[in-house]
Specification:
heterodimer, A: globular, disordered C terminus, B: mainly alpha
Chain lengths: ~325, ~325
């Protein structure tokens, strides 16, 4: 078990190293960092001075080591556009993205599980067919179209919800939250729905498939034979066994929710990391791009690691196969 | 004594296609037929766009400011010949959609083709050669699979543009997008092909081909590859929809096709700016075109997956 965790953790470190190399290569070789920092009338001598002060004349392995040590301490250099340390910008933007991603995941899980149970239990009802059709359309519509549609409905026509921004935020140290003000909550509704819709259809389909599978098993039949109420069978026995894979998938999906937040944040001008990244891509602000890649990879890799370890803790069968494979 | 059944008469290719199981399952599903019809109509409209448009929407000389902000034909202020209305610059929306769909389909199809060639090639090599090469290729695939394709495409797009300079002309941008999409979608092909190759490699026909001294390259391409094509076709169809979505998303985010040669995604980004001034048609119709294109391709992909899956017959 311990050996498995260690090997798995080493793998994650390997992935992070690989991402680090890519991110360094971007930082160093895509475009000339000096050209991005100076004005047109900067003299050659001044340029050479900046080049030296940035350490760009050192051997590449030394530069890589320096970049890596800095990155491990969350020092990502200075943004070309904002002339501020990238780590500060990311820190400022991170709460917005994490709040949005969490809300979207909670929404997706809540509604996804509910609708999934419903469509598994009432397989032939009209509403189930509607749900199936809507989920197919939900998967086919690109995220940004859903966002635009919502804005048109609720901001332009009805005027109920704000179409951009986070509303008023409350600060706790460096963390800013929009969850405590009315305007903040109102601003959160449409982006969360837009971001969570895809995960919701995914979870709904998963819960439905798992429920249908579980309802056919012998222990459910036995529970019926014992004369348990339908409610106890469905929610006490069937649902409980459905939830393990659902929670795994939702956990693994949290990373992609953060990545997909790029699109949602652009549609709603949500001041998070994703919007920062999109603007960085447009303005060729390599330090931000490289740092975003590193931070998001770290989140991804950590989540995958935790889910993998939890899985082996929860399910003894997996431990057995891992042992045999080794 | 029973007679042997008479050998079936040789049929022409078309007759055989009409007689096949796949065509039968196609005819039985009304939804698939509707989807196929929509895809066919959209493809034809895009392919022969110059025949259907009232103006070349991206030639500034053909635009008249006097025709700007006209609403669709069926509304009170509609004007001929602008079926779906015009935008701020007097550009006919219908014409813009047809030209935009051409770009979207071209980027999507080329991107999928690039991804398929890359993935199939690497998958064949990984599966057939095995060993360290296999480990290396599949490890890269594993790492890449951790990240969503859209993020990878966005990164590649950004890096290439910063390496080549930020002001590329439209056709170079198109190529950059094709490469970005290809590099983000190859993993699935590589994994599928590698899996099938590992199975096929131990079959007698491969041993026979090796015995008569055929080179590995010929065995891979001529003998193993054709036996792995079924699932590849299904992946390619579903990936076409994904590639079109990815391109549209990149263009919507502003790092895809430029305004001078817009795809559907670019048109939606431009139209989105007029949402609040009441000109809903500038964004609505490109959106509907994109959604129906993707939905129909997805439906075709779903059907193809079921039709080619022998377990579901």
């Amino acid at each position: 078990m311990l050996a498995f965790i260690l090997r798995r953790a080493l793998q994650s470190v390997g992935v992070m190293l690989a991402v680090g190399v890519i991110s360094f290569a971007m930082f160093r070789f895509a475009g000339d960092p000096v050209n991005q920092m100076v004005a047109l009338d900067t003299s050659e001598a001044q340029r050479a001075e900046i080049r030296a002060s940035l350490g760009l004349n050192d051997p590449v392995p030394l530069q890589f080591a320096r970049y890596f040590i800095d990155a491990a301490q969350f020092k990502f250099g200075v943004s070309y556009q904002f002339r501020q340390p990238v780590s500060m910008l990311l820190k400022e933007r991170m709460p917005a993205t994490l709040e949005l991603a969490t809300c979207a995941t909670v929404l997706a899980m809540g509604f996804g599980i509910l609708l999934g149970i419903y469509s598994a239990l009432r397989r032939d009802s009209f509403l189930t067919k509607v749900l199936q059709a809507v989920s197919l359309i939900g998967i086919s519509l690109p995220t940004f179209l859903i966002g635009i549609l919502l804005i048109y409905l609720f901001s332009v026509i009805l005027g109920w919800l704000p179409s951009f921004g986070r509303g008023e935020v409350v600060k706790f140290g460096w963390w800013s939250t929009g969850l405590l003000t009315v305007s903040g909550l109102k601003a959160l509704i449409m982006p969360s729905i837009t971001l969570g819709l895809f995960q919701m259809t995914l979870i709904m389909r998963l819960v439905r498939a798992e429920m249908l599978e579980v309802l056919r098993t012998d222990y459910i039949r036995f529970a019926r034979a014992r004369g348990l109420t339908t409610r106890a069978i469905h929610f006490g026995h069937a649902l409980k066994n459905t939830l393990v894979p659902v929670i795994t998938v939702a956990g693994l999906q949290f990373g992609s929710v953060i990545a997909f937040a790029i699109i949602t944040e652009t549609v709603f001008q949500w001041p998070g990391m994703g919007l920062l990244f999109v603007q960085a891509v447009q303005n060729v602000d390599i330090p931000i791009m490289a740092a975003y890649l590193l931070v998001v990879s770290l989140i991804f890799v950590t989540i995958n690691l935790i889910v993998d370890i939890l899985y082996t803790v929860v399910d003894p069968r997996l431990r057995a196969t891992v042992g045999r494979a080794a | 004594m029973t007679d042997l059944p008479a050998p079936a008469p040789r049929q022409s290719l078309i007759a055989r296609a009409i007689d096949s199981d796949i065509f039968y399952s196609f005819r039985r599903s009304k939804l698939t037929m509707v989807a196929a019809a929509i895809v066919a109509v959209l493809l034809l409209l895009a392919l022969f766009a110059p025949l259907f448009v009232v103006q070349d929407p991206f030639d500034p000389r053909q635009l008249e400011l006097i025709n700007s902000r006209i609403s669709p034909l069926w509304t009170a202020d509609g004007q001929r010949p602008f079926l779906l209305g015009t935008d701020e610059q007097g550009r006919d929306i219908f014409s813009a959609i047809l030209y935009g769909m051409r770009v979207s389909l071209a980027v999507g199809a080329l991107g999928v083709a690039f991804a398929a060639v890359l993935g199939i090639g690497l998958g064949l090599i990984a599966g057939y050669v095995g060993g360290a090469v296999d480990t290396l290729i599949m490890r890269i695939a594993d790492v890449q699979l951790t990240f969503p394709a859209i993020l990878i495409a966005l990164l590649i797009d950004g890096v290439v543009k910063s390496a080549l300079g930020n002001h590329l002309d439209a056709s170079t941008t198109l190529l950059v997008l094709v490469v970005a999409i290809g590099l983000s979608f190859w993993v699935q092909y590589a994994r599928t092909v590698r899996g099938s190759v590992m199975v096929e490699k131990n079959r007698d026909y491969v041993a026979a081909a090796q015995l008569i001294g055929l080179p590995a390259r010929v065995i891979m391409l001529r003998h193993v590859l054709p036996n792995t094509m079924g699932p590849i076709l299904v992946i390619a169809t579903i990936n076409l929809a994904l590639a079109i979505i990815t391109e549209a998303t990149l263009s919507f985010l502003g790092s895809g096709m430029p305004d001078a040669m817009p795809s559907l995604g670019t048109l939606i980004r431009i139209g989105n700016n007029y949402l609040f001034s009441g000109e809903w048609w500038v964004v609505a119709f490109p959106g509907i075109a994109l959604a129906s294109l993707i939905l129909s391709i997805n439906l075709l992909g779903d059907w193809l997956r079921d039709a080619l899956n022998p377990k579901l017959r």
